Amino acid sequence: MQDYFCNKIRTSFAMASEKDKRNDGYENGKQPDRISKVNEPGGVYQPQDPPTFEKVWFMFQQSDKKWQETERFLKEKSLETERLMKEQSRETDKRFKETDRLVRNLSKNMGGLNNTVGEVAEDYFRGAFSKLGELSDVKVKTVDGLQRTVGKLTGQFDIVVFGDTANIVVEVKHKLRKQDVVRFYKKIFPTFKRLYPEHCKVRLFGAVAGMTIDDEALAQALDQGLLVFTQSGQKIVQLNPEGFEPREF
Q1: Is residue 199 packed enough to be buried (19+ CB in 10 Å), middle (13-18) or exposed (0-12)?
Q2: Which residues pair with 236 in a beta bridge?
Q3: DSSP structural state of residue 248
Q4: CA distance 124 to 143
Q5: How far apart are CA 125 and CA 128, in angstroms?
Q6: Which residue has the higher pLDDT, 28 or 127?
Q7: Of 108, 192, 197, 245, whose CB has the highest number of CB atoms within 10 Å?
Q8: Number of domains in the chain
Q9: Confidence class of residue 96 from pLDDT cuts 50, 70 and 90?
């Protein structure tokens, strides 16, 4: 293939050289009668020798060499760019993993904090109910928390006040909200009746208690006939209005 290009170049330059001779008055071996003058510093135009095959071939080799160097440079830059992108990708992935770990730990700690606050509220009301001799016209016998699983049904109940003529199931929250009240009478209370039928042979009342209670939660609890308790100083306070009749479930 290289010989082919060499022959082509030789033929092209031979034809060009012959043409230049004819144009410049060298045809049939005759010298030109006159020399053209131009307005150049030298004063006389000196015709340049046509490029030889060797010169053109040298220029071609130099151009090919420069192209190879350029191609090698671009390839090296491409490899370097690819390496940097991989390093950045690994660093970004590492940071994402670290952020995810921190978020998980924070969620875990917040969950633990919420559980601790809830347990403090449960302990407070359990101790307070245990000190009462009577709760809503029911003589208090014992106060306890219950948990039981029957088949696939599991229930955990914060406080159950066992009385002489009735039992009271109490849902405790540090801050009682409306959704807590709805969940209690729609889900938790029915679950208690299914898991503890032996405690439903007497009258059964429901109650909610919170260290703080928002207005919507209080209104919802009263509307559903639940007893409502909160804390005030070192004692618990019942928020049901005078003459309130609790609903028997």
Answers
A1: middle
A2: 231
A3: B
A4: 12
A5: 5
A6: 127
A7: 192
A8: 1
A9: low
Task: State both tokens at 211.
Answer: 């260290």
Could you list the residue range(s) of the whole structural domain that residue 208 is in? Answer: 128-238
Phi/psi at 198 (nearest 5 deg)?
-70, -25
- Domain assignment present for residue 59? The answer is no
CB neighbours (10 Å) of residue 143? 21
* Residue 64 pLDDT: 65
Distance CA 113, CA 108 (A): 9
Residue 187 lies in a domain: yes
> For residue 48, is it within any domain?
no
| Cβ atoms of residues 3 and 57 within 8 Å | no
Task: State the pTM of this model.
Answer: 0.54
Distance of CA 114 to the CA centre of its chain: 23
Chain segment 125-139, per-residue pLDDT in tens: 888 888 888 888 889
Eight-class DSSP state of 155: E
* Calpha distance 167→155 (Å, rounded): 17
CA 45/CA 22 separation, integer angstroms:
18
Which single residue is written with the structure tokens 């009668």? 33
β-bridge partners, 147? 156
Query: What is the CATH classification number for the domain harbouring 208?
Result: 3.40.1350
Give the pair of three-digit tokens for residue 240: 């049901």
